[in-house]
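Collaborator request, handled under Task 6.
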Amino acid sequence: MKIVIAIGGSILLKEYDYQKFQEYSEILKSLSNEHELFVVVGGGKPARDYISVIRDLNGGEAQCDDIGIEVTRINAKLLLTALGDYAYQRVPHNFQEALEFSASGKIIVMGGTEPAHSTDAVSAILAEYIHADKLINLTSVDGMYNKDPNKYDDAELIKEITASEMMEFISGKDTKAGTYEFFDMTAIQMIKRSSIETVIANGYTPENLTKVINGEDIGTKIINE
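Structure tokens returned to the collaborator:
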């Protein structure tokens, strides 16, 4: 299968060490023997920290986005280092480059692309652009809940949801640079129009990636309408 995998920066850099990069590199190397892999890496706390400085300097949202994008590309380079020869050792700056680099037969790793697009959106657009078979979004929670599970003990996991239902759920949420309201509206719109098979799962356990690809019942599946 041709698979796009979005990995949140807060997952890879929660402890500011190499461990998650190494764990993911081993799993991605193994999966690359059977699948064509494209990985999109988020910015996480480093991006939010730098964005905070830009705002303190009275920079605009586009400048904040630009700084955040640079951080995602640094994170992508860290993962490329961990992957070594299994990955194409350049970070694509756009979708055409990602497609061109994939001719190498190696794992492609990228970060952001342009202002106003979160890495959630980038992964969904990339999935459509390369005609991916599956999109997997690895985040900091087990999937989509009816309310924030970090704040409410009675939050319930939603196992299946349509893209339209997700769009209604996140409508009106904050879209400033560096914010994370579970999922990006642009990403949902892309998933809806392309009917991309999508699963959202907890990325703190890297083995969940393999489970999703093997079809195990974890996380939240965005189903076709």
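The cover message to the collaborator said: "DSSP finds nine helices and nine strands in the chain. The domain at 2-223 is CATH 3.40.1160.10 (Carbamate kinase). Please let us know whether this matches your experimental observations."
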